[in-house]
Specification:
heterodimer; A: 79 residues; mainly alpha; 76% helix; 0% strand; globular; B: 947 residues; alpha/beta; Ubiquitin-like (UB roll); Alpha-Beta Plaits; Rossmann fold; 5 domains; six-stranded mixed barrel; 38 strands; binds iron/sulfur cluster; binds FE2/S2 (inorganic) cluster
Amino acid sequence: MSHENKLVMMANQIGKFFAPQTNMDAPEMIADHIGKFWDPRMRRQIYAHLDAGGDGMDAPVREAIKRLQERDKAKQTRA
Amino acid sequence: MSLIHEIDFGTPASKAGETVNLIIDGRSVSVPAGTSVMRAAMEAGIQVPKLCATDMLDAFGSCRLCLVEIEGRAGTPASCTTPVAPGMKVTTQNDRLAKLRRGVMELYISDHPLDCLTCAANGDCELQDMAGAVGLREVRYGYEGENHLKQQKDESNPYFTFDASKCIVCSRCVRACEEVQGTFALTIQARGFESKVSPGMAEKFLDSECVSCGACVQACPTATLMEKSVIEIGQPEHSVVTTCAYCGVGCSFKAEMRGEQLVRMVPYKDGQANRGHSCVKGRFAWGYAQHRERILNPMIRESIDQPWREVSWEEAISHTAAEFKRIQAKYGRGSVGGITSSRCTNEETYLVQKLVRAGFGNNNVDTCARVCHSPTGYGLSKTYGTSAGTQNFDSVEQTDVVIVIGANPVAAHPVFASRLKKRLRKGAKLIVIDPRRTEMVKAPHLEAAFHLPLRPGTNAAILNALAHVIITEGLQNETFIRERCDLDAFEHWATFIADKRNSPEAVEAITGVSAEAVRGAARLYATGGNGAIYYGLGVTEHSQGTTTVMAIANLAMLTGNIGRPGVGVNPLRGQNNVQGSCDMGSFPHELPGYRHISDDATRAMFESLWGRPLDSEPGLRIPNMLDAAVDGSFKGIYIQGEDILQSDPDTAHVAAGLAAMECVVVQDLFLNETANYAHVFLPGSTFLEKDGTFTNAERRINRVRKVMTPKNGYADWEITVMLAKALGLEMAYSHPSEIMDEIAHLTPGFAGVSYDFLEKVGSVQWPCNEKAPMGSPIMHVDGFVRGKGNFMITEYVPTDERTGPRFPLLLTTGRILSQYNVGAQTRRTANVVWHDEDVLEIHPHDAEQRGVREGDWVKLESRAGGTTLRAVITDRVAPGVVYTTFHHPLTQANVVTTDYSDWATNCPEYKVTAVQVAPSNGPSEWQEQYREQAERSRRIVKAEAAE
Ligand code: SF4
Ligand code: SF4
Ligand code: SF4
Ligand code: FES
């Protein structure tokens, strides 16, 4: 499996746990999880994948990655 | 220093609350009701002679040496079997008793060889002591009559001998095997004069059911059962209390020494985890420390196809530091990292993560918990608020219903298993959830009430079904839920769990377990009294590992089985210090005490003490490091005491990752498999050679004490200190106690821990701080650490690893009793007599279909790779499931496992791999190549030759 596909698979796996949590905002939880556990280079890779069309990413994961990317950008501008 | 002699009170302590007053030899004594007269006397300092009694065992009353007189009672009752009564007046010494005792001793001695002076037990023999105590001066019966003096010795066990001629048939060994160990391997054959001790059906020890725990050897009052090491070396002269370095039970031992030579390890009765018991590994398998293959000099090489070159410590350390600096300058700060060891001490793991965070300036630090219990940490912190088990081991004594899921404590946590079995023999009920019929399912004198043999990978489904039954049948603990849990989360969860898709009937198709059995088990757990769940890697090592941990946490909250003795959620942690390595901040996203690295206040505290800025971003986890290495962004790694090539999944991928790095530093006792890919080898030290602490599965911080000088020159913590210094990070510690002081200062749960404190109390369970000055045996007593208990929805998601026409079987992996993890230590001991190769367990049906016979070589193949090993045909595994262990590098079970992992933590899915099995002629080409490469990679050019 290519590294990128692996990251997509990992992100979708995370998505599949949070999507059924009826009392939570799933994309928010997914974004929070990835933000807390993935090192910046892995996050950059998945942002790049999303920018390139986000092939294979489940809907809530896509939304989560988008939010996270924006947050990371904002952080960088602040820094 | 001298030998530590624990007092033997003769019979176990009574747990009764009420006390009884009596008079013994004119002294008034007050003891708990139910105490024996013998024990009451000993508590008052009055020693009654005894042979068949010892306080690890229930009284038996066979030797008649402990006779006493009791006012108002006829005859001379045995003090070991007579309980105290209020107002009792006991006499333990007078002429009549002395005469009787001498008579008893005379009979014993008349059938005992009189070779005391040359006997290995000389100086440590209770028979000898008692002969002295009763004042035996003559033996009137000669040796002419029939006797047992010519009995054959059984030396089949590699660690102890059985010299039947010295046996006094006190049956302490038989009872130890039954009561303490729970194996029932020994019997007394025949009666009267003919009676003798025998393993099983008069077999040799090695051929019997005996698991070599040594409890019988410890119990034997004579030299009949004797450690071979004592026979060879002689009696020890001093002892030091320390902690076993094998599994997460964390047994306390007395290391009995002669100077710097270890004579034997004897389980310490005051050890709060093991209460005087141990298994074969801790008691006997310590010979690896002296093994000729141990590496004692540092070595380096430019590339991994070169032989190793021995160098001085100075050269090795400055070379390593220069390499790491060079790599960081060229590829960036994040291009290097480290792996802490769950076999090393807390202090040592703490230093490695400190070196990475403050010395390397990134958070690329991880530990082997990644591949075992990382889902426990995450799952329990989300539901309860802490990353650890909720109970102490003693808690099992108050349990009524036990669920064991995905664990085989008999093999992996033997001393806990013995304690559990003891409780089960006293009537507690057992539910086993495991694809295999493990040794827990049926053992002598106990049988599980339910065994749910689920298909590998369906844990979450079956736990959901258990919860479904409890909710839909109204068996939940409403009060507990209302008072202790987040009600909103509970409502959402309850709606989810009550859905038909989670019913046992619906789930049966997924798990293969009958709905009826699931219903029965659920009812038993919910209504059977105190319910406790114990689980192992069969829970965590799945793509839904974290989900399953949460499902377990839900089940315990649902039934109110949290916050008191006898209940709880208990992860059985694998390695000796895997709990500790997690506590010490070995994960890339959190600092010691489980605080996220992005938390500014926590970081600031560490920054100010360490004098370095810390990165606020999480670092790489082990699998991510390997991916990044293959990708080219990760180039150097410092690995302390881990063998990731053998222990991590998908060997080919691990090898590719390591081969892509420019500087791999391995610090270990032996040239392990990972070292085949290393550029620097730093020889490590054993647990016998250093001071420190280990934290066991019950959060117990135990002291490890140095009993000999490190053969390699330095304790592991000292090596990290040298490396840090060469990298420009000063670590000014003169003793590990100072490292613990720093940990205590920075970590709220450890605030009360210090070596002085541990010296006083023996051991302590964290949190230990102002709120809990004596530690916390049970967690979440008055409320969950996170506030309200949080029910998480645990939807079953099947793993992507599926069987199909090419790979129709499911492989699951595990371990066995005599070997430990990658086997680097145990393979270098006599334990190999029990397990000298990994084998594949396969069901008769699957074997027949493939034309595989018992003992045949078979090829085991998955989409990741293949290996060959021998087949064992057994119905312990279900049809469609095969099973093996991963203790031997030449089998390399992990060549076969895949890189699928837990969704939350990347803990690998070791327990489910789709495979095919086919007959084969012998080792595969890959295995031959690997053997050759390993041999080539282990060539060493000695320092003298290099000059
Ligand atoms: S070593 Fe342990 S298992 Fe073996 S006979 Fe003795 S007590 Fe039983
Ligand atoms: S072997 Fe030792 S413990 Fe067992 S009956 Fe003989 S003397 Fe007693
Ligand atoms: S391996 Fe585990 S059970 Fe065995 S002696 Fe060591 S700590 Fe105890
Ligand atoms: S010690 Fe009491 S009968 Fe043996």
